[in-house]
Amino acid sequence: MRIVLQGGTVVDGDAARYANVVVDDGIIAEIVADSESDRGVVNEADAIIDCRGRMVLPGFIDVHSHADGLLRDGGVQRALLTQGVTSVIAGQDGVSYAPGDGQYAGEYFAAINGPHRTYSGGGVAGYLAAADRESRLNVAYLVPAGTVRWEVCGRSTAPADGSQVEAMAALVDAGMQDGAVGLSTGLDYVPGIFAPSSEIAALCAPVAAAGGVYVSHMRGGYEANSDSGIDEIRSIAQAAGVRAHVSHFHADPDVVLAGMSTLDRAGVDATFDAYPYMRGCTLLGMPLLPPGLSAQPVDTVVDTLSDPIERATLRRDWFPAVERNASLGPEWPAMVTLSHIAAVEFTWACGLSVEQAADRAGLDAIDFVLDVLAASRLEVNAVMAVRHDRSADDLARIFAHPGHMGGSDGIFIGDHPHPRARGTFARYLREFVRERSTWTWGQAAAHLATAPAERFGLGRRGKVRQGWVADLIVVDPASVADTATYDAPLGEAVGIDDVLVAGRPVLRSGVMTDCTPGAGLRRDDARAPGKGR
Prior knowledge:
The structure is a single chain. With 533 residues, this protein is α/β, with parallel strands linked by helices. It has 2 domains: 58-278 and 390-413 and 439-512, Metal-dependent hydrolases (TIM Barrel), CATH 3.20.20; 282-384, no CATH class. It has helices at 39-43, 74-81, 103-108, 123-131, 145-153, 162-177, 197-210, 226-240, 253-265, 285-288, 291-294, 298-306, 308-324, 332-335, 354-361, 365-375, 392-399, 420-435, 441-455, and strands at 2-12, 15-24, 27-32, 47-50, 55-58, 60-62, 85-90, 138-144, 182-186, 213-217, 243-246, 270-273, 280-283, 336-341, 380-384, 404-405, 472-475, 496-501, 504-508, 511-512. Helix 12 runs antiparallel to helix 16 and helix 15 (354-361) packs across helix 16. The radius of gyration is 23 Å and the shape is globular. The two termini are 17 Å apart.
């Protein structure tokens, strides 16, 4: 199919020019001047997209997504496409479906990744194959270290022994050979929280050998504890000789910039992602339950939370530690807003803070959250406020760092989700390009498309250039904006109405088409669409 994107401003690096982009068989065939002498390329087209007054940019790559099991969901696809996202990197935070049968992710991470309706095994190769031609979006995958640990060590909270480390490293190596782009850890989640640095470094050895990236949700809750998390990444990267990427690096800008400088001075090739919001979102049980308890089977945890004696023990021995947590503190009930609750009898509380919901239920905050967690079999997520808000100026300083890449950490599970799932990339463009000029349009393309494609080995993507894969978006620079807010988080982004994936229109004049050209992206896969990709 031959398509011409006519008369737009083509953004490639720092260059921007009025031109026609000719797409043929999924590839950018030509970029030619929009003049009378070049009308032939328009006349020969099967379809023309009028881009006058708009910009043609490379499709964005969300380097931290939790759409792992939802790529066939039309609503999720639309939420990403209207932001200009054409590819996501899944397998984040150390927990996802492959390798294994997906059971652990479906249990522990149900409130973050959701169920996967087609993957039931086959490792990374099986996961990526299940994504081929089944969605309007592309997906690349990180081998999740927590899932690997689960497959080898089960629910053990002890450091892995030598044979277990070898078995885990073999699973990681197999995943890299299947096309994974790296390894992820979630060191505040179970079971990653139990893995020592030496164990993680051993798993990074096959990642380094394959040219992949070690991607880490750091240990310790970020913010004031970021220094120790950065130091652990440094030690792992140096021991394994692996490139590093810090997930959702949110803290005071001085802390973020100092952390990246520390890694640079240590000789670690490191990048990071950060989204344009102050609040976070996570499993409710992650900060509010002891890790050793969370590691138990769900039935065991539910029984514990339902037992009055066990509750009293948690109240006495554990919740004082929650109040001492540097990211939460004693005001935690007011800082935690319930986003997804699996138990239907408690869905009325979505959108309320724990404090508000507990008051409405006539309970104190601890009893209320334990009731909700038990009734939902732990399937609860929440939006988490920060104790010390950062301004847009602070975020601009973070985003100006050359190692920054666009990542939403988008979670689509819940009646009242964090707005970052539907607003991140449009918010980057509205606030940090059009309104604040933190980036030029060319720099936005670099942070959100070019650098991620290069970093994670996604082949000839991320540029509007002849011979490259035609993952392209058409942006109205005057109107592109996010509409999702904390109070109304389901608002759809506006200003991006035409999107091509592998040269096929998947969003046309604001309407999703029936094309599903998305693919499971294998590391350094530059093969053209339609030719065995």
